[in-house]
């Protein structure tokens, strides 16, 4: 017995020794840790390849690729920041940056960004990563919401096919959806698992802003006629026209694809990058097309939260980290990343690349929308996450399902919403 | 007499057979219900992307393919991550059992006020959510230079598994008759000798069940591993599995299902190995002798 316990202890100690971290080499080249959230096969490959290229040409600054995960990225980064162990170069989405920027966890890149990078991205792009007077990230990929449509159904219904130059109005879209509907078939399926960001971003097209900044810098919620257009259209499609099923209101985008492929829905409003899934999953004889989202008083304008690259405030080699970001976002490299993620680059030079203007898979339609993309309305509003979770999400969900009316929706968004925001602006 | 007996026997036998058939059917249904998630995962893992997107999914893949498995292994270092997970889970189970066994013995045999308070604390400590402790824990591990180390992760898992392990083992120790230990004492055995030679062998099933609990806890854990491990080469299987999930919950379903199915196999294997001991172990503390 004693021998057995002794042996077990020795084995355990050996195993634990095997678990110990490897030694760190002191001196030598600077090592930067780059945490990427790329997840699609082509995108991961493009990122790793670019890191290899950098390492091959920069003997003094080595970059270590770390695979991050969109799932729980906020909690993971928060813990790493608090513990002083954050990655040096951080991939995230712009709507996740506000708390980290205000919390002093991200480096202000204002004086560090090279002129080429600064001038290569339009002002609207920089607005998504500017908090207060600082710039806390480089926006590099973005995706508009588009309508993915069953081309054969559209042709058979003889509806006008919208283009970025001549899009559908919201009213016309409602009429088309009605025309495409029939017994057991719907003109459109709205996957509104995240109803707030989808509604707010699309509402920009109709002049909706919802968040209004006063002269003293304080933000208040005001639900104006421009904010009504998109929610009213969706609700009417579900409850009055029956051109959209109620069953998809709680679904994610991927959940609607089987119904789309089987002819149950003729159109699905989805993020531009969903095309990758559609290419992979659509039956071979299924013909689909990419259409611009409907336009309102402000045309095709819509809100986006681009993917960003930031530098940790604790990073001791900020200049080197920005140099790596600059390398990663050279136009040719940005195009590789955009193609890998099936998204649009924010950089104007990269956007001109012929590979992003082909008719195949709707690339040209998406690229034509790039100039109309604006920061998501709630981007820099402190308290937005709480407002979204506690007030707006249930209110929109109840409105879309027909449980409450427009007056109650307005009342809750404004009254309850302003109470929440006020706590963050004392 | 014999004739009468035979005339009564068939209905009884038929009833018994029918009852037994009913029992087996119910058992089979129950087993299928339990196995359903695993079978569905396997079915999903073997489907092509187009079949996965069918409106009415088939139970059995029409054209089974291993492409998802190949893709999963090509895209992510699954084998390496599985090794890390195995190492961490095994070490957690071993250390948790080594610490919990003597502690449980003391708590079960010495029913003092302190022991009762300790048991209460054990129960309360199970209520702390991960997010509440992660930042202080992170700072402590940083001081100990155990961030980004599997040793650090094992330490966290042991601390996390210990209260429940302890709670489980206390019940098992109480089920061992104290008279056996008194007899050993009369025969001249000291406390340590009694514990090692008399009590520990009787605790075998309980220890096996506790080890399995600690193993499965560590094998499945995601959040601590996500936060504490930085280097790609040290990431555990649950963390690597999330690499198949993109923004807004979009997932590469086929490879994810294939990888997830493979990730369940070690737990199933350990269960199969320890099954007999566990059954005894789970029941051992259930009733007072």
From TrEMBL, chain A:
Keyword 4Fe-4S: no
Keywords, alphabetical: Signal
InterPro entries: Bact_solute-bd_prot1, SBP
Residues in the signal sequence: 1-22
Keyword Nucleotide-binding recorded: no
Domain of life: Bacteria
Protein name per its UniProtKB record: Cyclodextrin-binding protein
Organism expressing this protein natively: Streptomyces cyanogenus
Taxonomic path: Bacteria, Bacillati, Actinomycetota, Actinomycetes, Kitasatosporales
Automatic annotation (TrEMBL), chain B:
UniProt-recorded name of the protein: Inner membrane ABC transporter permease protein YcjP
InterPro entries (UniProt xref): BP-dep_ABC_trans_perm, MetI-like, MetI-like_sf
Membrane topology classification: Multi-pass membrane protein
SUPFAM superfamilies, per database record: MetI-like (SSF161098)
Chain segments annotated as transmembrane: 21-42, 86-108, 120-141, 153-173, 194-219, 256-274
Organism: Streptomyces cyanogenus
Domain ABC transmembrane type-1: 82-274
Record Gene3D superfamilies: MetI-like
Similarity comment: family membership: Belongs to the binding-protein-dependent transport system permease family.
């Amino acid at each position: 017995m004693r021998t057995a316990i002794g042996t077990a202890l020795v084995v355990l100690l050996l195993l634990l020794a095997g678990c110990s971290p490897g030694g760190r080499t002191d001196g030598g080249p600077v090592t930067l840790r780059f945490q990427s959230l790329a997840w699609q096969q082509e995108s991961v490959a493009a990122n790793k390849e670019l890191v290899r290229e950098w390492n091959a040409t920069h003997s003094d600054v080595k970059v270590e690729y770390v695979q991050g995960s969109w799932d729980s990225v906020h909690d993971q980064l928060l813990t790493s920041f608090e513990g002083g162990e954050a990655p040096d170069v951080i991939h995230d989405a712009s709507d996740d940056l506000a708390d980290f920027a205000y919390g002093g966890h991200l480096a202000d890149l204002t004086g560090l960004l090279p002129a080429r990078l600064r001038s290569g991205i339009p002002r609207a792009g920089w607005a998504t990563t500017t908090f207060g007077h600082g710039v806390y990230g480089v926006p590099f990929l973005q995706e508009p919401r588009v309508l993915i449509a069953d081309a054969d159904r559209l042709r058979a219904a003889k509806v006008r096919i919208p283009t970025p130059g001549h899009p559908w109005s919201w009213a016309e879209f409602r009429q088309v959806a009605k025309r495409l509907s029939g017994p057991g078939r719907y003109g459109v399926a709205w996957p509104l698992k995240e109803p707030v960001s989808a509604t707010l971003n699309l509402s920009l097209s109709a002049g909706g802003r919802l968040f209004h900044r006063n002269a003293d810098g304080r933000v208040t919620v005001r639900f104006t006629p421009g904010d009504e257009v998109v929610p009213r259209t969706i609700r009417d499609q579900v409850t009055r026209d029956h051109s959209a099923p109620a069953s998809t209101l709680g679904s994610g985008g991927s959940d609607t694809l089987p119904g789309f492929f089987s002819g149950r829905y003729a159109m699905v409003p989805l993020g531009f990058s969903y095309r990758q899934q559609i290419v992979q999953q659509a039956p071979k004889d299924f013909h689909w097309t990419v259409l611009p989202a409907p336009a309102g008083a402000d045309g095709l304008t819509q809100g986006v939260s681009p993917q960003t690259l930031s530098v940790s405030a604790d990073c001791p080699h900020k200049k080197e980290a920005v140099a790596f970001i600059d390398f990663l976002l050279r136009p040719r490299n940005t195009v590789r990343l955009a193609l890998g993620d099936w998204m649009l680059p924010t950089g104007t030079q990269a956007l001109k690349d012929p590979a992003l203007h082909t008719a195949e898979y709707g690339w040209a339609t998406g690229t034509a929308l790039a100039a109309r993309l604006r920061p998501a309305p709630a981007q820099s509003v402190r308290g937005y996450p709480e407002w979204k979770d506690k007030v707006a999400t249930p209110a929109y969900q109840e409105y879309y399902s027909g449980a409450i009316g427009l007056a109650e929706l307005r009342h809750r968004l404004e009254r309850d919403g302003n109470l929440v925001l006020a706590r963050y602006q004392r | 007499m014999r004739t009468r007996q035979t005339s009564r026997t068939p209905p009884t036998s038929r009833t018994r057979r029918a009852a037994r058939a009913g029992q087996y059917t119910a058992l089979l249904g129950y087993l299928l219900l339990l196995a359903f998630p695993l079978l569905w995962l396997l079915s999903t893992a073997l489907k092509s992307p187009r079949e996965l997107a069918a409106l009415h999914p088939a139970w059995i893949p029409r054209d089974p393919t291993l492409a998802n498995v190949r893709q999963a292994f090509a895209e992510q270092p699954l084998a390496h991550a599985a090794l890390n997970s195995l190492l961490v889970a095994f070490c957690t189970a071993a250390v948790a059992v080594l610490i919990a066994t003597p502690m449980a013995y003391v708590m079960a045999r010495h029913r003092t006020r302190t022991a009762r308070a300790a048991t209460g604390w054990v129960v309360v400590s199970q209520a702390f959510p991960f997010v509440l402790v992660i930042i202080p824990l992170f700072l402590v591990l940083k001081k100990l230079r155990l961030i980004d180390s599997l040793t650090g992760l094992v330490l966290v898992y042991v601390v996390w598994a210990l209260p429940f392990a302890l709670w489980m083992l206390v019940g098992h120790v109480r089920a061992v008759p104290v008279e056996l230990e008194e007899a050993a004492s009369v025969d001249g055995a000291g406390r340590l000798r009694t514990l090692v030679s008399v009590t520990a062998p009787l605790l075998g099933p309980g220890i096996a069940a506790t080890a399995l609990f600690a193993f499965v806890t560590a094998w499945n854990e995601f959040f601590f591993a996500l936060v504490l491990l930085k280097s790609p080469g040290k990431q555990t299987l649950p963390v690597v599995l999330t690499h198949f999930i993109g923004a807004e919950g979009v997932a590469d379903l086929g490879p994810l299902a294939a990888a997830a199915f493979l990730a369940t196999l070690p737990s199933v294997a350990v269960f199969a190995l320890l099954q007999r001991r566990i059954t005894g172990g789970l029941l051992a503390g259930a009733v007072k002798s």
